[in-house]
C-alpha cells in the first residue's frame, strides 16, 4: 500500500470512532468494470472498492496467464473433461443437488470427480436433464487436498488474507474452493460465510449474479422473518408473504464472462446462476477492512444461540463454551482462537481493539 492509500485508510477508520461502518450503501445502477491490469493498482482497488465495500468486475486480462484457463478449457471454451479426469479423476468432491431445497440450501453428497464428470456428460446428452437431478460440484478444497501450483495466481488485490493465512498455519482447512457444473446449476440467496469478502473467477462459462447491498435483504424477509431461498421466485411478489418487498430496490445484475473476476464485498447478499457449463475458482477472505463486520456477525450469532438455549444456562457445565461451539457450527465454520474468547463477558476481537486495523497490504 502506498502512503496516500494508508493516509486515506487511517482517516476512514478514525471517522468511524469505534463504530461499525454504516450499512447504507450509495445507490448503484451498475457494477464497475476494470479493464486493464497495468492501469489499476492495489491502492486503486483499496480506496475505490475494498474500503467502501463496493463490488466490481475485473476483465479477463487479469487472469489470462492462469494455468487453469489454458489447461482446464478446450479450444472451444468448454470444460476440458479429459484433462480434469487425468489429473483429478479419483479425487472425492462434494456435490449439491440444486433441485432439492434443504432449509435455504441444497443437500450434498460425495462422489469422485470421475463419477461427477460422467454424470455431467450424460446431463448434457440428455438435453440438460437427468433423473438424478441438477447436480453442482461446490466447495471442492483443491488447494487443501492437492497441489494447486500453476492452476492460478493469487491476484494482488486479494492477497491480504488473514482467514486463509490462519488456516494455512494450522494446516487443517481453508476457504478456497472450486465450483463446476452444467448450465442451470445455481447457488441460492446468501451472504458469504462470516461476512467475509470473496472473489470468483470464471475459468470457463458464464454466470448471472444478483446483488443486494447490506441491509436491503431485510426487506426481502417473509412474514415469518425468513430470508428467501430464491430471489427470482414469483412468490416474492406476494405482499402477504413478503410485506416489505416494495421497500427493496431491484438487485444489481451482473453477467460474468469467461476469465472475468468478480469481487463480492462483505455482507452483500447474492444469488448466482450458471448460464453455461461453468468452472470457477472462489476464495473467501478477511482483513482489517471487514474484520469489524465479521466480529459483529459472530456476536449476533452467539446471542441468538444463547437465547435458544438460555433455559440450560444454570444446569449445563461450560454453557458459554457450548454456546460458542454451536454458534460457530451455525456459521458453517470454526475460527477457534482467531476470534472467539473463552469468556463472553468481553465480546470484542482483541487484535482489532489493541492491534493494527490497517494490515491490508
Automatic annotation (TrEMBL):
Family the UniProt entry places it in: Belongs to the JMJD6 family.
Reaction equation(s) it catalyzes:
L-lysyl-[protein] + 2-oxoglutarate + O2 = 4-hydroxy-L-lysyl-[protein] + succinate + CO2
Q: Name one GO molecular function term.
A: metal ion binding
For whether the record's keyword set contains Iron, the answer is yes
Q: What's the subunit arrangement here?
A: Interacts with ETF1. Interacts with the ETF1-GSPT1 complex.
State what protein this is by name.
2-oxoglutarate and iron-dependent oxygenase JMJD4
Write down the InterPro entries for this protein, in alphabetical order. Cupin_8, JmjC_dom, JMJD6_ArgDemeth/LysHydrox
Supply the gene name.
Answer: JMJD4
